[in-house]
Amino acid sequence: DKAVLRGLCLRVTLVYKNLSEEEFLLLSLKYEGRYTSREIGAVIGISPSLVRMRLSRITEKLRKQMKKRNE
Question: Rounded to two decimals, what is the model's pTM?
Answer without folding.
Answer: 0.78
